[in-house]
Amino acid sequence: MCTLNRLLLAGLFALTPLAVMAADDAPTPEPEVTIRTEGDKVIQEYRQNGFLYAIKVTPKGAPPYFLVRADGTDANFIRSDQPDMLIPSWKIFEWK
């Protein structure tokens, strides 16, 4: 009986780090919002589990608008109120 108790206790100690790691990787129900200022605009970035899915831009003296992902690519955003408007995303220079 004492051996069984020791095995159960050793198994409990062995599984504890796995439970902690699983809790850290659990998806978050609420988005993370990062707020920053660029010039006269306030930009709010909305992320879910590290994935940027929407950007709210609030220009000074103008109504706010949202940029949302057009597809699954990293830099392809469109305005939610004007989906036909193209948002430029050119790469000017790149370090290698």
Descriptive terms for the model:
single chain; alpha+beta; S-adenosyl-L-methionine-dependent methyltransferases; five-stranded antiparallel sheet; 24% helix
How would you portray this structure in words?
The chain is built from 1 helix and 5 strands; from the N terminus they run αβββββ. The protein is 24% helix and 33% strand. The chain has a 5-stranded antiparallel beta sheet, with no helix packed on it. It has 96 residues and is an alpha+beta fold. It has one helix at 2-24; strands spanning 32-38, 41-48, 51-59, 65-69, 77-79. It has a domain at 32-79: S-adenosyl-L-methionine-dependent methyltransferases (Single Sheet), CATH 2.20.130.
Average pLDDT level? 75
Biggest β-sheet: count, sense, barrel?
A: 5 strands, antiparallel
* Rg for CA atoms: 23 Å
Question: Based on helices, strands and strand pairing, what is the structural class?
Answer: alpha+beta
Helix percent reads 10-25%
For the record, give the distance between the C-alpha atoms at the N and C termini, rounded to a whole number.
64 Å
Number of distinct beta strands = 5
Strand content: 25-35%
Q: What is the H level of CATH, i.e. the homologous superfamily of the domain at 32-79?
A: Protein of unknown function DUF2782
Total number of helices:
1
The CATH topology annotation of the domain at 32-79 reads as S-adenosyl-L-methionine-dependent methyltransferases
- CATH architectural label of the domain at 32-79: Single Sheet
Order of helices and strands: HEEEEE
Output the CATH class name of the domain at 32-79.
Answer: Mainly Beta
Poorly predicted runs: none
Sheet with the most strands: spatial strand order: 1-2-3-4-5
Net shape: elongated
